[in-house]
Write a structure and sequence with these properties.
Elements lengths: L4 E6 L7 H7 L5 H7 L24 H13 L4 E9 L2 E3 L2 H7 L8 E5 L4 E2 L9 E3 L5 H15 L6 E2 L2 E6 L8 H14 L6 E6 L14 E4 L10 H4 L3 H11 E5 L7 E6 H11 L5 E2 L1 E2 L3 E2 L10 E3 L3 H14 L9 E4 L3 E2 L4 E2 L9 H13 L2
Parallel strand pairs: 1-2, 1-17, 2-4, 4-8, 8-9, 9-10, 10-13, 12-16, 14-17
Antiparallel strand pairs: 2-3, 5-6, 7-8, 11-12, 15-16, 18-19
Length: 369
């Protein structure tokens, strides 16, 4: 078996920026929502509060070095940083810019362009837009020329010499194939053999990578309906209904008893994902936990009853059953390193400590022997 290379998705929104000051109030960071979270029902794990690393500020070298040291200790190969670009305007770029200028921060990294609108409801939609995402060939060229400055860094992750770049929502592009063609040309002009271009495969994006000119996808978890499940779709309607009821529980919100909210049992969800299997040219993905009720006051998505042991079983299944030899690399995407306001993090918290990191290292080492 190839040596597994866990890639943890990294959110840089843990420092104030002028735009967030204007939109959400002075001093806003991701911690603002995290600390306001409250349990919605009995047994609901909220708030998620950090342990070892504390309420860090990613402008500080000490915070970034502490993250990298923790990641290395537990076998994380690299971070996939969210990248924010709006027609030449960058947001939340300061932590990575400072890393580029600091040779002590040597953890490998790649970028994923979060190419959606910023909205007040955190859904990337068309309502309550704070800053809009627009596309053009001129912007494609300007953007890739900027990205090449990252690609040239020795710490930037490459596959056979080609820098990796990921697009979060390719369906938002007017012509993603044309954009990819422009990007590949510019990357080759810069001296690279090619661009290794991928996308986040989720409910919205379940196509085969080559269909739109991509080299690969990665399973962005959690996401229902990401891939067709031959077993599930061949069930009769009664069995389908039973399956849905088992995986979906309805509960009443304490805040509004008339408002029904939904949560999914983590173990049931993970079993469904295992049954879905894998798709050609798509790297596997996993989530340790998920609960975005800190961000979304209405209709949050909650994976309830996650534990390190249940996460470990899902992780073990992936490592043992994914056909690693069919991919040029052995990336395993973990969502996420530090999505605290989405209750989705490997970083130590006050409830679980380092248990999710320990389980990650334990399972990968055990399955790689």
């Amino acid at each position: 078996m190839q040596k597994i290379k866990p890639i943890a998705i990294h959110l840089p929104q843990f420092h104030p920026i002028p735009e967030n000051d204007d939109w959400w109030g002075k001093g806003f960071t991701e911690w603002t929502n995290v600390t306001k979270a409250k349990p919605r029902f009995e047994g609901h794990y909220q708030p998620h509060l950090p342990a070892d690393l504390g309420f860090y500020d990613l402008r500080l070298e000490e915070s970034r070095l502490a993250q990298e040291a923790l990641a290395k200790h537990y076998g994380i190969y690299g971070f996939c940083y969210y990248h924010y670009w709006f027609n030449g305007k960058r947001l939340l770029h300061e932590p990575l810019d400072r890393k580029l200028n600091n040779p002590k921060e040597d953890l490998p990294f790649m970028l994923c362009w979060a190419n959606e609108n910023w909205t007040r409801v955190w859904d990337g939609g068309e309502k309550h837009v704070l800053i809009k995402q627009e596309y053009s060939e001129e912007d494609d060229i300007q953007h890739i020329l900027h990205l090449i400055s990252y690609f040239k860094d020795s710490r930037y992750i490459k596959v056979n010499g080609a820098p990796i770049f990921i697009v979060y929502r390719p369906r938002l592009f007017p012509d993603i194939q044309k954009t990819i063609h422009v990007w590949r040309n510019e990357v080759k002009k810069a001296g690279f053999p090619d661009l290794y271009i991928g996308f986040a495969q989720n409910k919205e994006h379940s196509f085969n990578p080559s269909e739109f000119g991509f080299d690969f996808g990665f399973q962005f978890k959690p996401s229902f309906g990401t891939q067709r499940n031959p077993v599930f779709y061949s069930m009769n309607w009664k069995d389908k209904l039973i399956q849905r009821i088992k995986s979906k529980l309805r509960i009443k919100s304490k805040a509004n008893p008339k408002k029904l909210e939904y949560y999914y049992d983590y173990e049931n969800y993970s079993k469904i994902q295992m049954d879905l299997g894998f798709q050609k040219d798509v790297y596997p993905g996993i989530t340790p936990m998920w609960d975005n009720s800190a961000r979304r006051k209405i209709e949050p998505f909650i994976l309830h009853h996650s534990t390190p042991e249940k996460y470990g079983e899902w992780l073990k299944y992936i490592i043992k059953n994914f056909t690693w030899k069919n991919m040029p690399e052995s990336f395993l995407f973990i969502n996420a390193w530090n999505e605290w306001a989405e209750g989705n993090h490997l970083e130590p918290c006050q409830k679980w400590g380092n248990a999710y990191l320990e389980k990650t290292k334990e399972v990968i080492e055990e399955c790689s022997q």
